[in-house]
């Protein structure tokens, strides 16, 4: 199929539409039967642990800072029988808390605007019902009443963040339900702080740095359809939906831009003290320096040009594991260098294998496929791949939804060794027979917990069972994330060889300690006022404001513009060109405030984000950890302020207390009180409770430890079917 076929475009304006993906499929969560082996201690430094923790503590409930204090630096860990810890200096310590009673408690958020509208008094038309703007002041009594109510979904795996599904799914299904674009009530056009316009639909202007409206160019497609995934459709234009014509601008080619980076922060060296656990058989020893990795000269040059002089813990452990050809599941804090941890050893392998430059071909067969859940994140990973492969014959390509399919194909046919893709676009391209899978040696799932949950799990399964895809025994599969709920880990056996290694870096809950976390009790109707107050104090410092729905993102962005605060927004209802513009304006500081939904919660690495504000708390603690991880990256410090509304957020009190305590943050007394009043024995609302961000669930399958983190035996663990009864 020639390129021209993809160019037959009839440009038509349209309103973006989406159909939320309601994925009903449930996963079986059987044990994979893999054996678990602890990595032997390699040195003598011991860290102490909370050996005498009380019941609440084991349940993910801490009574303030003192109980939650588990600073690896200051609190030596008492040896226990279960596992071996290492600091990233290579010292071993011994701590693993058995019988962790934190429950896996993933809530459904679904970005359900109707629900949000009802629950939060947010007008469905986009207006904010502000009749009673008095703060629903935070008596913990009220919180207590709430218990675990307020959100349905309870145990449902990954039904949260349907924003992501929309990210890949909505445009493919475009048009079916008509436009669901939010209406910016009362603010058809407003002015940002720097005089830019923030426009609604008409979108004829292009206010610099402002919030631009919609005027998406689309092409109606004639169907060319050779293979189809369930979720695809409109995005490729093969079905009845409109085609997208957006062609992202090429990234800058000059060396300075390719290697542009920000400085590591004052706490970068503290990474050395973070505890690391490696589990599984025969783990290769960690390396302490880049030189020990024995990479080729070109790679070393690129590492130096990128400003990397020292390995982060996840890199120290993951690089030798990947170089040894082992499958890996790695869990490490936000902003601690996971991307380079997989890219560098993969590139090293490719160079050692003497990879040949790929040529122009109609069917490309990449050696490496990297998938990530959002377009902006996969683009970022691609830029990292391009940086580290600079000067080699390895060619990285990125493809993602919301862009013209023909453009993706043109990128691919020019040669492709590393394909960075979002799942929907990847499956589309495979269906078009532009990508063959026979040569795949490395499959990387970044934000792997997200990639395997209900949103993307089915697509990922299709990918690994696509014709030509080497079996897991024949390829190397790598999974990275800052969070790894146990139930999701159990699914990993499908993707990983049974002897995969598990690397866990860091503390319970995985929140980065370089982020100063503050929880404020703010009722729904006082949030805007509080937000403006905070933003005025912050001044021009870069701030991400997270809200729960796309409509609200539009509304709050509009509101802030009206308040003369330069703001832009990113969410799944914005066209891709708008999303990229928004991110660009935020990155360069033109708009220092970015209002975002969960689509921006994971992975995005933006220099100088000093503040994250959770205008709405997310529905899960994992998402909270990812969101606040947009600041405090790579040893820099950051601040996160979260508005806790007792009317809707009580289910998060307990896991929040845990996350705050473990990151040595102050825990407000009122939050403890709510956590206490909503405490349910055996359920903590968190999949947490161990000293590590996550633990290797294979431990639970060996008869040695039959407790999962909720304190249930595996067979007792709540089933997603029971979701409704958990409210
Ligand atoms: N060894 C290193 N030395 C200096 N900078 C590094 C090093 N490793 C990574 N970085 C930089 O740190 C930043 C964060 O890295 P990265 O985005 O890979 O984090 P991450 O762990 O994937 O975070 P997240 O969980 O949010 O996805 C990037 O700007 C990256 O270039």
UniProtKB/TrEMBL annotation:
Keyword Cell division: no
Highest taxon of source: Eukaryota
Keyword Nucleotide-binding: yes
Region span, Disordered: 28-185, 193-212, 221-244, 704-727
InterPro entries per record: DEAD/DEAH_box_helicase_dom (IPR011545), Helicase_ATP-bd (IPR014001), Helicase_C-like (IPR001650), P-loop_NTPase (IPR027417), RNA-helicase_DEAD-box_CS (IPR000629), RNA_helicase_DEAD_Q_motif (IPR014014)
Domain Helicase ATP-binding: 319-502
Amino acid composition bias (Basic residues), ranges on this chain: 142-152
SUPFAM superfamilies hit by this protein: P-loop containing nucleoside triphosphate hydrolases (SSF52540)
EC number, as in UniProt: 3.6.4.13
PANTHER family linked: ATP-DEPENDENT RNA HELICASE DBP3
Protein name, as recorded: RNA helicase
Species in which this protein is naturally found: Felis catus
Gene transcribed to yield this protein: DDX4
């Amino acid at each position: 199929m020639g390129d021209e076929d993809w160019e037959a475009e009839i440009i038509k304006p349209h309103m973006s539409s989406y159909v939320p993906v309601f994925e009903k499929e449930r996963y079986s969560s059987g044990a994979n039967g893999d054996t678990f082996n602890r990595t032997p201690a390699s040195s003598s430094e011991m860290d102490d642990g909370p050996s005498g923790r009380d019941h609440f503590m084991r349940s993910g409930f801490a009574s303030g800072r003192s109980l939650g204090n588990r600073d690896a630096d200051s609190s030596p860990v008492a040896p226990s029988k279960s596992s071996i810890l290492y600091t990233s200096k290579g010292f071993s310590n011994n701590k693993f808390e058995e019988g962790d009673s934190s429950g896996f408690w993933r809530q459904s958020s679904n970005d359900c605007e109707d629900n949000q509208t009802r629950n939060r008094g947010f007008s469905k038309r986009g207006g904010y019902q502000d009749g009673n703007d008095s703060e629903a002041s935070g008596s913990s009594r009220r919180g207590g009443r709430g218990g675990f109510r307020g959100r349905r979904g309870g145990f449902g795996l990954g039904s949260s963040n349907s924003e992501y599904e929309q990210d890949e799914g909505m445009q493919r299904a475009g048009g079916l339900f008509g436009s669901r674009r939010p209406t910016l009530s009362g603010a058809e056009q407003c002015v940002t702080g720097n005089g830019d316009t923030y426009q609604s639909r008409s979108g004829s202007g292009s206010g610099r740095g402002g919030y631009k409206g919609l005027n998406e160019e689309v092409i109606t497609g004639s169907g060319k359809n050779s293979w189809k995934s369930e979720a695809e459709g409109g995005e490729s234009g093969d079905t009845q939906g409109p085609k997208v014509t957006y062609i992202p601008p090429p990234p800058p080619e000059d060396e300075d831009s390719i290697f542009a980076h920000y400085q590591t922060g004052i706490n970068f060296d503290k990474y050395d003290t973070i505890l690391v656990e490696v589990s599984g058989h025969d783990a290769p020893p960690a390396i302490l320096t880049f030189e020990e990795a024995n990479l080729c000269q070109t790679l070393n040059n690129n590492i130096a040009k990128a400003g990397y002089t020292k390995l982060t813990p996840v890199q120290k452990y993951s690089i030798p594991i990947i170089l040894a050809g082992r499958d890996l599941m790695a869990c490490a804090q936000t902003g601690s260098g996971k991307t380079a941890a997989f890219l560098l050893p993969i590139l090293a392998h490719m160079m050692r294998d003497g990879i040949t430059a790929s040529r122009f071909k109609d069917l490309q067969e990449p050696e490496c496929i990297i998938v990530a859940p959002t377009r902006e994140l996969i683009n970022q990973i691609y830029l990292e791949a391009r940086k580290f492969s600079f000067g080699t014959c390895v060619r990285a390509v990125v493809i993602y939804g919301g862009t013209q399919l023909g453009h993706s194909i043109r990128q691919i046919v020019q040669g492709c060794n590393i394909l960075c893709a979002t799942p929907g676009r990847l499956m589309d391209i495979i269906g078009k027979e532009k990508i063959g899978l026979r040569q795949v040696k490395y499959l990387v799932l970044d934000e792997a917990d997200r990639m395997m949950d209900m949103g993307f799990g089915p697509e990922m399964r299709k990918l690994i069972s696509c014709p030509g895809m080497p079996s897991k025994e024949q390829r190397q599969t790598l999974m990275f994330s800052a969070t790894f709920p146990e139930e999701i880990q159990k699914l990993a056996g499908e993707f990983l060889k049974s002897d995969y290694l598990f690397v866990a870096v860091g503390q319970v809950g995985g929140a980065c300690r370089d982020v100063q976390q503050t929880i404020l009790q703010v009722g729904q109707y006082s949030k805007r006022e509080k937000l403006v107050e905070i933003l005025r104090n912050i001044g021009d410092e870069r701030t991400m404001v997270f809200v729960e729905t796309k409509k609200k993102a539009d509304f709050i962005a509009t509101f802030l513009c009206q308040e003369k605060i330069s703001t832009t927004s990113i969410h799944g209802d914005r066209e891709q060109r708008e999303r990229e513009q928004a991110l660009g304006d935020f990155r360069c500081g033109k708009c220092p405030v970015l209002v975002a939904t969960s689509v921006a919660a994971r992975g995005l690495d933006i220099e100088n984000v000093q503040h994250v504000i959770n205008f709405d708390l997310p529905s899960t603690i994992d998402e909270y950890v990812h969101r606040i991880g947009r600041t405090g990256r790579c040893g820099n410090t950051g601040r996160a302020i979260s508005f806790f509304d007792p009317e809707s957020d009580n289910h998060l009190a307990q896991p929040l207390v845990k996350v705050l305590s473990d990151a040595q943050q102050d825990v407000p007394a009122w939050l403890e009180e709510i956590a206490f009043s909503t405490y349910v024995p055996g359920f903590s609302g968190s999949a947490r409770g161990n000293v590590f961000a996550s633990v290797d669930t294979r431990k639970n399958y060996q008869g040695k430890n039959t407790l999962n983190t909720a304190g249930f035996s595996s067979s007792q663990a709540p089933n997603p079917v029971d979701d409704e009864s958990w409210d």
